[in-house]
From TrEMBL:
Keywords noted in UniProt: Carbohydrate metabolism
Origin superkingdom: Bacteria
GO biological-process terms attached to the record: amino sugar catabolic process; peptidoglycan turnover
SUPFAM superfamilies: SIS domain (SSF53697)
Listed PROSITE patterns: SIS
Name of protein: N-acetylmuramic acid 6-phosphate etherase
Location of the SIS domain: 54-215
Pfam families assigned to the protein according to its UniProt record, in alphabetical order: GKRP_SIS_N (PF22645)
Source organism of this protein record: Anaeromyxobacter diazotrophicus
Single Gene Ontology MF annotation: carbon-oxygen lyase activity
Amino acid sequence: MAGLPPTERLHPRSRLLDTLPPRGALRLLHEGDLAAARAVGRALPALARLAEAAARALEGGGRLLYAGAGTSGRLAAADAAECPPTFGVPRSRVVALVAGGAAALRRSVEGAEDDAPAGRAAVRRARVGAADLVVGVSASGTTPYVLAALDEARRRGAAVALLTCNPAARPRGAARAVLATGPELVAGSTRMAAGAATKMALALLSTGAMLRLGRVRAGRMIDVAPASAKLRRRAVRTVAELGRVGERRARAALARWGWSVRAALEELDR
């Protein structure tokens, strides 16, 4: 047990989990969720440094790339997918490299996480270079695909970092953000506390970077792509509130600028 990463160890309160009534079991599991949030809170200084590094990479013409497998890879892919519609960044600028490829986003691809050569190959295919930041996402901190991807990215001159739930994981040349969630209440099921913490941390990292890049103003998304009726209504409200005009004038300004919230606000600010 001592040599196992924390995510593989048995939680001291889990031995009776399967004997509890449903409400009691869920209450105990939810305590794990709350502990995950506290672990993210303890990691905020490291996450802030990663957000700054991501902003520098994006500002300098580089990219933010995630590398992950299994649950970690799917969470990374979800965060990367949300950045373009939320913050108006091109899809090529925030990218997820996932063990097992696109198929692994829909179902578990067993064994893909152990494929270190695939991790290196994914980094080469992505043409990672010195302008990029590559963040490995691995709850255990031992995933061969992720560690190989980081090693290859570092070899190619990129900045590298590891987001992990294992305080003992220390990849060579990589910054770290450690989410010390400890053992899972269902031993090894990192889709639970580790997954919850990872989801929060990724959202903080990417949102922090976009804040640094000026893509949020007064709590509003000003580079959102208004591709649906709901988002167009939101764009009108944003321009009306931040531009201090009525919704009719806000809509007219948006129409003149192809529904660019930023451009409409710049017109109204003049």
